[in-house]
Amino acid sequence: MTDMTASPVQADLPLVRRLEAVGFRAWPAASVVYDGSWQVRLTGSHPSKRLNCIVPLDPSDYRDMDLRLSKARKRFADYGRSLVVRETPLAPPHLIRHLEDDGWQMFETADVMIGDLAHLPLPPTLGHLPSHDIGRFVDACIAVGQDDAALKPALAEILSSIKPQSGFFIKENPRHGAVAVALCVQDNDLAGIMSFAVSQTVRRQGIGSEILASALRWARVSGARSAWLQVEADNEPAIALYRQFGFRKVYEYRYWRKG
């Protein structure tokens, strides 16, 4: 099995490839095409950056960069979107230097973290049972994140497209309704934590730990040996919580756009 304790300083490229692959399956784009090893992901119904970006997946694939970026820009424009490149440790250094020289700007960084479920102390029973009601979970996500209700059809479509086994976790209380959500996607021995959010009205009350522990417990019972997640690099409270659960950073990715 791949070593899940790789140093975040020098990325373990086979591990990066595996986590990128499960990440794509856990949050599937509506349209995926390949230009060489560059994955071009587009989803007209939802603005998520992970669903609308180019992801280069081979450090040696940087030929004809201008032409390929120009073709991708046209494809993104057809969807009414600006071209975004997602840089992981698999991106060609030549391409990133080209973007810098051509006036592109890096505008967001996220950490990819993993944790060992086998030795993680978790509650003996599930505090929250997973739901499989997509509509209820989408409504809860929108309420917790105070998002635009118009995104409901798009979120429902994305969740319906996830092929691996998934569990929707929702924490509700009589006063506020849904106050925390988490999506756990189990892909063989890896479980991904997605859409994890806690309402601003109830933060610092242990609710995030409660719902995350339930999701991880369910993943372990279902056969997962490790868990992974993605978090914005400047989200210090979330990162502190994940570290309490034994997660550690293994690599980061960055988004680039021009102008």
Describe this structure in words.
It is globular and about 55 Å long. The protein is built from seven helices and ten strands. The strands form two sheets. A seven-stranded mixed β-sheet has the order 4-10-5-9-8-7-6, sandwiched between helices. A three-stranded antiparallel β-sheet has the order 1-2-3, covered by helices on one side. The chain starts with 12 loop residues before the first helix and ends with a strand. It has two domains: 13-112; 119-224, Aminopeptidase. Helix 4 crosses helix 5 (152-161). It is of the alpha+beta class.
* Strand order, sheet with most strands: 4-10-5-9-8-7-6
Which band does the percent of strand residues land in? Answer: 25-35%
Helical fraction: 25-40%
**Strand and helix order:** HEEEHEHEHHEEEHEHE
Please give the largest β-sheet.
7 strands, mixed
Please name the fourth-level CATH homologous superfamily of the largest domain.
Answer: Gcn5-related N-acetyltransferase (GNAT)
Kindly state the mean pLDDT as a whole number?
92
Work out the helix count: 7
The level-1 CATH class of the largest domain: Alpha Beta
**Contiguous uncertain segments of 5+ residues:** 1-9
**The number of domains:** 2
User: Would you tell me which CATH topology of the largest domain applies?
Assistant: Aminopeptidase
* CATH architecture identity of the largest domain: 3-Layer(aba) Sandwich
Principal-axis shape equals globular
In total, the number of strands is 10
Radius of gyration: 19 Å
Secondary structural class: alpha+beta
> CA-to-CA gap between the ends?
42 Å
GO molecular function: acyltransferase activity, transferring groups other than amino-acyl groups
Protein name: Ribosomal protein S18 acetylase RimI-like enzyme
Keywords: Acyltransferase, Ribonucleoprotein, Ribosomal protein, Transferase
Domain N-acetyltransferase: 124-259
